[in-house]
């Protein structure tokens, strides 16, 4: 049972103006220590190194996702749509609020090294012995399981899952607006109120009415712009790469029994790949940041150099190339070795095709629910079948591959790198 | 010779914050009666009937185009680009300011009936015996001719013409932002400062540097949205159609020697298709609006009805249809006649393919200069060859044809229209 | 009885994003010809001569006042405040929508010459034989009388009157935001949502809860800024003065039996001070604007000169003076006469103390309801007793008196004006 | 000698749109590790606990101050004001950029406990053996000393000092806009471009031209709103108090030889009040945050409880009282002690008069330069002598004193606190 708060609570939010809380359960969830921890995890990882304004946390974003979900549901209720399952309201709101609760610090870099998975951790935190679990259970003993199912997309009702994760979900709607606001990249915005006006529940799906197609095109175009202008910005990629190399090196040193001067609590769990829930909750971005500062003084030259690069923003430079092949990469690695630089830690190539490009494609239905258009004859059509623009957004557009490397270390590398390689890296003049 | 003003003048502008005037010639042009007249001609004609906020005038827009041109040039000068012909600065600014000076009231509707042409009138006003001409001549006796050449696109330097009329010109940049601001349709905005940062003069063209492609995509997407959401809005089309019918009827009555109760000065010139410059300057939107009010009391039933529809916003309804052919149209016309309604004045079909869709297409180079991308090898590529998105914007997207008609007159039309026609018009229940 | 619309109607509005209409009565009122006429009357009269963006109409503003009232009421209802008389909802909405329906063209200038009064006309239109009256009567035969009472502030319930006209009413809240938006003067904005959160009904009044005092200070400060930056801008005053002089001259000529070349319909009624309702509805700003164009060709030199000044924005210049007395004024008038210029039409002095300064003062309770603060002990305190800032806004702040005159006619006036006078007018060099 | 960069560098900034860097010295300063450290110090300390969006760093703010200074100077140069000492440009820019470089983590709380002073540290970092010092020296060996003098307000030219610290300086202009943007409190904004247009150098001062008085009123009003709505928000104060108590307790325990489980590097320096520069640079907010997490597990009950309160946002509640005296405070302390709660760590009273209220007052000339108005007679007048509003902003307005305490620990405190005290604290039901 959810109880209403005596008095509506309000958070001032720069993106949505105000965030409204009416349910006691939501209020109590926000006040758990697991949710408060999200204040210490940035929403955009290392992007602040490119866009200095992007220092916002997953706490802000999670409140925002909750608010978008609340507005969608409130619109559905106000219009009295019969296809909306009213009894799922609290489940939706809790899932929206908690969907990111398992995110650790700098997930992009950390997860790829240690194989942790934030979604898995979210479910662990929701189902485990946590304050969040207690608050949910108090509202309804089945709620933790249901919330976990919604977040892992195994809940039985597509309409509930789709609100939290689909191609047009509360998560994406908040993060696009929020990331645009904090980076200052205003071309990433779209008209949320207009989207709210064109979606509705329909036979178990959330659909877009036909006249709303242009609104969805606008939203997807914003997403496209954010990916290419912000999320894939090479400077951001460069700092992510350095951070990943830090952890790769640290793991290797740990395996090689390096004697760390600084190695405490959750770090051990991390390096051994067996973190307890308590470890996980301790490992926020302050912890990682402070660790990197300590490690910048470790004796291992590679680890300390990488850490100090991250700390003081002395990033790898990048070269953009139209085409690339395995040959080039192996030549480069050889050349760097000849110069005395370990390419395992000082070279990285971003192949365009391997970027985690989450822009709408009709085909990827297995991963995330597509956007359905309700046409004039009341039939559902997948939206890219109607819109040339949406189809065209799916592809890769004249992008380039990027090679990341420490330019200043290679400034006198004529003896180890061929003129062609130097030219490719832009080091020839 | 242009003189600098003793002190920079400033206009507060909601779109560009401030508009800066430094040249005496510009200041004097703004104060001519021909330019002041633009205050009495709305920028978006009858769009205010759909978007009540869109009541802004061509005066505001013209100042805006001037300001965008000024900022572009000032950016070119600040960066010291060698390919920018500095001596053309005043010519560019004057042309930007004056490019719309020949616009009459509700041009869309009026020009199609009387065959007037605002561009032709602009040149007449620039070259004729006007205050504008005197101010230009004072600065440089050749200036009127040059300004007229730039506006008519016959001036020798593409870079000058392109600043005022091309696919990425000061005119479009201002009107998209301004129309979005006044309608409240904020998805029509794009980031002007970002565009300014990616364009530059290059061998006689204005080009976009390759890394700016996404910025241009964003700008063209805004334009696409404005066309489909604002400029082609069926309610706006409906009011334009009524206005055109008013003038068609008035012209016909005049040819038929109808005894007008109200018919003065420039109206006679208009109906006879021979307006003097003085007539033209008198015929602003107040004049037309007041005329329509007078004519709403003329004895001719059709004229007075159409006028009163326009005045009191009792517009034609519209039906959207996927397919349409000549057969349907002729059936409809016959049916309406059988009901005693003259289809010449009470029926109009908007064929999708005939909409004046001015969205970027690579092919239409004869009409307006394309957008050139300066690629990594310093070669020029027409932008749609690089961008799937820009290519996809060019087509017609799942739009519909629209039939406009006076629904309330046809509410009991079962005896004159077939059930199929009634269904098409949405009058079957 | 008010019926709900089958489907909510929506207007896109640049200030409030969307305006929502749920009641059939409201929808029908908007579609009356009397309400549509407001599209042809500008909200800010001649201000567009100073702020070119300020071309918005009373139609937009009236919709905005309605929307603000709707949001206030909807907030009261959502919170279930017992002190809110629910049965007055439709009355409030209709009054908000219609409160300006009697405004004629350029009211400031016209009313002062002919003694017409827009509030009186509003009531005439609501109570007379009009479409508006019919729509109201259909909803409830008593509604026209009630609406008229609310607008004329004689309705029995202060809380209803206060919503439409008080120091913190829907009218002011809309016009401040709207005028700021269209002029581009963004320092005139305040946070409407925040105001909505701090007001509530309380024992027959609308009151502000104590913690909301700073929000009201911010709102009143915006109002203060708008008055001094926009409403009293000397260029606006100059154009108002010229317009008033036009009408004063026209009236005088009419009394003197001048043979007008252009004088039709409602103009006669206006000049004779006996307009019918039909006359009144015809006399919109197009009519006045077109009349001024015609009159710029009348034989009377003064009338034609004043009209052409207005048309082509050749306004009177102004001189700002710290102190002024009757002596100076009479000297000036004498001097102008000596130069052959009629001071009745070419001289005006704006005494600071006579400006219609409608900024909050505690004392003016007779004119408009004060703002009540509900303090910690649940007692009502007039807000300026708590706030130094609000008290300080009330006075006149270092302002100046302004003298308006045709500078170019006085450029060689050394023989008629004393050196001291020339210095005062800034004509001494 | 400052060198220009080959190509202007640009930072995307949400507040100023873009931040432009043209000088190599500025670019190099930004890339020093001392400046990069500012990314790890929040601009608003614990305010993010109240306004979740306020997570921005001093890095962003410092860039912003630089940009405001750059725009002011560029305006002075563009207008060619003779009273502007052009040779001071680089000094001004460096000082603006570096003025906050000595800020440590959560300065408000830390400085009051340990007596550190960020301004002093700024000068140490500028003058000491740092990267910043080397970059400055390279441009001009005298530059470090000059920058330090400007920041400490001992530099000989008031106009240079005033640009960085005065009542209308680049620092305040940026932080008001920035804090408003990130908190979402948009009533804290003012029109920066308008301020730039009304200030100018005049005989060694930066002055405001008389017609700009309203612009300054608007700016000061924003500041007033920010103080009362944001900076003094009781929830923010509550978290600051807890943090201060943490450090007071930690210091006490250290003096009492408590055996810390976690106590490393710079913390020792802090607790002993003798930090080296290296310590100081290490002690960023990550370090403090991580320390607090560790200390939440220390054996001392008070320290661990306070730390866990801060971490999980279980703050002290507050009661607002109109009047307060020493008697009440001592009664409260006694009562708490009787309940077994140590008032040294669990009670705090914010006396209104002791708030660091930095709103404009004419009198405080010794602390910070006043705002001079250049009147019509070209004389300087201190602005509050002309403006009632500015005078009225100076005082304390109907504010309240606040008592902070752990409400949940006092929920059954009837035996230790008198009914009157319980009522005062709002614990009486």
Folded structure, characterized:
Four copies of one chain form a homotetramer. Chain A is of the alpha+beta class and 429 residues long. Chain A folds into two domains: 4-232, Hypothetical protein af1432, CATH 1.10.3210.10; 240-314, Up-down Bundle (Growth Hormone, Chain: A). In chain A, 50% of the residues lie in helices and 10% in strands. Chain A has 21 helices and nine strands. Chain A has helices at residues 24-30, 33-36, 58-78, 89-98, 107-114, 118-127, 131-139, 143-151, 158-164, 170-183, 192-198, 213-231, 234-255, 265-271, 277-282, 285-295, 301-312, 326-338, 343-346, 388-394, 419-424; strands at residues 4-13, 17-23, 199-202, 205-209, 317-321, 348-350, 372-374, 380-382, 401-405. Chain A has a four-stranded mixed sheet with strand order 3-4-7-8. In chain A, a hairpin with a 5-residue loop joins strand 7 and strand 8 (380-382). In chain A, helix 1 runs parallel beside helix 4 (89-98), helix 4 crosses helix 8 (143-151) and helix 4 packs parallel to helix 9 (158-164). The model of chain A has no long low-confidence stretch (mean pLDDT 92). The interface between A and C is small, with 5 and 5 residues. Chains A, B, C, D: GO terms for molecular function: dGTPase activity.
Question: What's the helix and strand layout?
Answer:
Four copies of one chain form a homotetramer.
Chain A lengths: L3 E10 L3 E7 H7 L2 H4 L21 H21 L10 H10 L8 H8 L3 H10 L3 H9 L3 H9 L6 H7 L5 H14 L8 H7 E4 L2 E5 L3 H19 L2 H22 L9 H7 L5 H6 L2 H11 L5 H12 L4 E5 L4 H13 L4 H4 L1 E3 L21 E3 L5 E3 L5 H7 L6 E5 L13 H6 L5
Parallel strand pairs in A: 4-7
Antiparallel strand pairs in A: 1-2, 3-4, 5-9, 6-9, 7-8
